[in-house]
Specification:
The chain is α+β, with helices and mostly antiparallel strands and 83 residues long. It has 4 helices and 3 strands.
Length: 83
């Protein structure tokens, strides 16, 4: 199975819906809801008090990056250019 990756062209400030995230990481929505109830997994937000849950692309990348892996070279270059 291919590793799960966020496309590099996606802007870190972009939003992903709960449903899109579950599809992207190939995990059932029930499992991700359980993570959320237990306080594990990515940080979610609701916009304007609405019912839909969203995650930023940056948060999805953070969640999908293994704890023992440092930032990718592309991410380091982006951070360095902000500088």
């Amino acid at each position: 199975m291919e590793p799960i990756q966020i496309p590099t062209e996606w802007d870190d400030h972009g939003l992903i819906t709960f449903e899109e995230f579950c599809t992207l990481i190939r995990i059932p929505q029930r499992t991700v809801r359980d993570w959320r109830q237990r306080g594990v997994g990515p940080r979610w937000t609701r916009l304007n008090g609405g019912g839909r849950l969203y995650i930023t692309v940056a948060e999805a990348r953070r969640f999908l990056t293994p704890a023992d892996a440092g930032p990718t070279s592309a991410h380091r270059a982006k951070e360095h250019s902000r500088g």
